[in-house]
Amino acid sequence: MSSLRGRLLLVVCVGTYAGALVAACSSPNSSAPPARTAAAAHASTLWGDMKPIVSVKELMRDFIDPASDYVFDSVGTVIQRGKVVETMPRTDADWDKVRMGAVMLAEGVYLLKVPRPFAPAGDENNSTGPEPEELSPAQITAKLEKDPVLWNAKIEALRNVGLEVLEIVKKKEANELWDAADNLDQACEGCHLEYWYPGEKAFLNKLDRKLVELYGDRQGKPLGMTVK
Ligand code: HEC
Questions:
Q1: Longest alpha-carbon distance in the chain
Q2: Domain ranges of the chain
Q3: Looking at ligand 1, which atom is closest to the CA of residue 57?
Q4: Does residue 190 carry a pLDDT above 90?
Q5: End-to-end CA distance of the chain
Q6: Taking Cα atoms as reference points, which of 58, 152, 64 lies closest to residue 102?
Q7: SS3 helix, strand, coil % of the chain, rounded to 5?
């Protein structure tokens, strides 16, 4: 998958714009000094303050989740009067919607870098009782503060899927949206299983080990769902 390599390179280059690897990402003409443009200077400073309004939970409900529906709902199969009908973007207006979802996700997910409460005041999530399903906002905060790099990695993972979808929109390759929707689902769940309901992660990994125990490792591919 050549586009994946391209994406990775892009991420490395953007991430290290002002850093040590700048030479590796600049033009092959090594005698030219690295271009320190105005854009590069801006990359590390914002034009103004970022102030949150809602909690992470509300941002999910009212922004990230609805944005993702533009991508998730763009492809699918439904049975209509006994016939299998495939949904896919066909018109320019259909593709506009996919692009809107991709832009909202790729740009919007950076709002998760602005410190904000995880849930509205007084909302403790389903974090009480003998086997709580969800972490409390305080537990999520503690987890993030211990390892902000991981939180940022989850954000970048979702952003990368947004970029992937933007590429698909450019090429209008509707078939590739199936994989992208899969990747999107994994990017959402990859963060939720880490920060929101990690109990399920433990369960899925246990299920994986059990399946491998029962049916063996199929050429290194586990049968269940491995959570990274
Ligand atoms: C970087 C981490 C991260 C990513 C990526 C992420 N989420 Fe979330 N999401 C969270 C956290 C944390 C919560 C739980 C917040 C809480 O309840 O304290 C949450 C909660 C939610 C909720 C529950 C909202 C409610 O009202 O209860 C929905 C829905 C949701 N996310 C959808 C999504 C979708 C869809 C995606 C992918 C397109 C996604 N999230 C990607 C971290 C993430």
A1: 67
A2: 1-45, 50-196
A3: 15
A4: yes
A5: 21
A6: 64
A7: 60, 5, 35
Q: What is the C-alpha radius of gyration for the chain, rounded to an integer number of angstroms?
A: 21
Contact between 207 and 224 under an 8 Å Cβ cutoff? The reply is yes
Residue 158 CB–ligand 1 contact under 6 Å: yes
Q: Which pLDDT tens digit goes with each residue over 25-48?
A: 444 455 555 555 655 655 679 999
DSSP codes of every residue in 95-152: HHHHHHHHHHHHHHGGGGGS---SS-TT---S--SSS-SS--HHHHHHHHHH-HHHHH
Closest to 190 in 3D by CA, of 226, 166, 222: 226
Three-class SS of residue 52?
Answer: coil
Q: What are phi and psi of 217, to 5 degrees?
A: -90, 115
The single-letter DSSP state of residue 17 is T
Structure-token match 């998958």, residue found: 1
Name the residue at shortest CA distance from atom 20 of ligand 1. Answer: 57
Give residue-wise pLDDT tens across range 80-99. Answer: 899 999 999 999 999 999 99
Query: Both tokens of residue 127?
Result: 């974090």
Closest ligand 1 atom to 134 CA: 17
The verdict on the CB of residue 112 being under 6 Å from ligand 1 is: yes
Q: Is the CB of 73 under 6 A from ligand 1?
A: no
Three-state secondary structure string covering 18-37: CCCCHHHHCCCCCCCCCCCC
In angstroms, the CA 210 to CA 207 distance is 5
